[in-house]
Each structure stands twice: as C-alpha cells, then as structure tokens.
Amino acid sequence: MVPAIDISAVSRRFGQLLALDNVSFRVEPGEFFALLGPNGAGKTTLISAMAGLTRPDSGTIRIMGHDVVSDYKAARQSLGVVPQELVFDPFLTVRETLRFQSGYFGLTRNDAWLDELLFKLGLSDKADVNMRALSGGMKRRVMVAQALVHRPPVIVLDEPTAGVDVELRQSLWSFVQELNHAGHTIVLTTHYLEEAEALCNRIAMLKKGRLVALETKDKLLARSNERDVALKLSSDLPASLEALRLRQEDGRHILRLPELGALEGVLATLRQASVEVRELSMIEVDLEDVFVHMMQGGAN
C-alpha cells in the first residue's frame, strides 16, 4: 500500500539554522498521527515543505505517492492543511471564502459539499457573515473548512485548537474523528498533549530539527523508566527522600522514582525512620511526562 505521507532524508537550512536534519518517517493511510515538538523544533517547516511552500535542500516528500516537487499538482490535490495562523480576507463572507478556496482547485458548483462542511463545523448560521465579524474560534473552523473544500485524503492540522474554547474544541475533534473513521489520514501538531494522547495512534517527536522518537503511543508511554508514586504518611517525609519529592498535594507526597525497583528502597527508608505508610498509589505516566523527558535529553 502506498503511504499517505512518505518523508525521506529531508533537510532544510535557513542560513545558519538547520531547521530539519535528515528527517524520515512514513504515515500510513487512515492513521491518526501526531507530530510533536517544542517551538522551533521544525514542525511548521516540515508542514510547509509538505504543502510545497518551501523546498527541502535534500530528501524527498511524497503525498499519496506524489512527489511534492516533481508532481506538485497531484500532491497538493491530495493534501489539506489547516495552518497555525488565522489567514483570511476580511472583505469576504464565510461562503465566499470557501468558494474562493475551491477555485484554487478548479472546483465550481460544489455548494452541496460546502453546505455539508458548514453544517458539520457549526457554521451554517455564519455562512453569509463577513469573516472579520467572526470570533477567533469561528475563524479557526473556517480554516478547517477551507482545507477540506477539495476533499483531500490527507489532512494536516497545525495547532487547530489554539485559542479555541472547550465547546468548540470538542465539536472540532468530533468532526475530525468522523473524517478519520471515514478513511482520511490525519496529521496533528498540538501543544495540548492530552489531545494527542487521546486521539493519535502513533507519535513522532522532533527536537531541534531531528526526529528523536517515532513510536506507537503505547510503546512511547512504556519507554520511560521513571515512575511517580503518591504516599500518605503518618509524619513528615524523611530528609533523605526530599530529593525525590516533586510536590505535596492533598496531604500526599508525590515522589518521582528513577525506576519502579526504587520503591523498595523508599519503603525501607520509611520503615527505618518509623514513618508509617497510610496510603500508596502509583501515578500513570502520561504523554506529557514522556515529552518532557525526551526534550530534556532523554533521547540523546
């Protein structure tokens, strides 16, 4: 099966800045894939290269088998990108904006599909409203609709819920999941790591332009040896364990252990100090824990 996205040895430099350093990975058709990294990691540069907005200095990118340089028309027809920035013409209505976007792909008389997009994204009552009169969250929805006017099989969402309230965020994800279930490939970048953990099957992490992780979500979560444990004690935590304490909340001491086996030593120290353990619970590792660990050097 042809990969939905095939990125091979891609590098891109801007002056002295190496924005992408030999990045390679594939995204399979129908995947819900997360591309994560801190600001400046190279995510937007990579998305721009996928969309043909910048050219790699070396390497290749193919969308549904189409090279974004040599077969750019077919590649762009196969890709819809929801940009991070809110870019719009302040003199057009929502419907006019979508018709204008359709024209870039040679599409006319597609009002039935545009009406469906407006309905699915909760924009039907805003169809004839001027873009500049919309809230930030509504403008974000229009950006999503613009990316879908040509029904692309691959959709890239670059920080789609930035500045969006909870209600709008939930309805947006419901629609995106519906698209994914219908067979669309979704690539998501987000700083809301709980979204990536809840939605995505596989995750790539970029750091300073380099790919430092490419795993299924479960394998990535299992990567970290560190474990957090919550202890409710009969008295204060012994001074010798203070270095392990992350915080104290609701009368519990939250300790971070370098590995699960370290728990035995902690309990031994508490026994020696005559401190009784009244409650003990393990705290599950989440994607944010793994992300912070990787970005602080865990992948080096």
From TrEMBL:
SUPFAM superfamilies with a match to the protein in the record: P-loop containing nucleoside triphosphate hydrolases
UniProt GO molecular function: ATP binding; ATP hydrolysis activity
Keyword Transport: yes
Native organism taxonomy: Bacteria, Pseudomonadati, Pseudomonadota, Betaproteobacteria, Neisseriales
Residue stretches making up the ABC transporter domain: 5-233
Listed Pfam families: ABC_tran
Keywords: ATP-binding, Cell membrane, Membrane, Nucleotide-binding, Transport
Top-level taxonomic group: Bacteria
Identification of the protein by name: ABC transporter related protein
PROSITE patterns: ABC_TRANSPORTER_1, ABC_TRANSPORTER_2
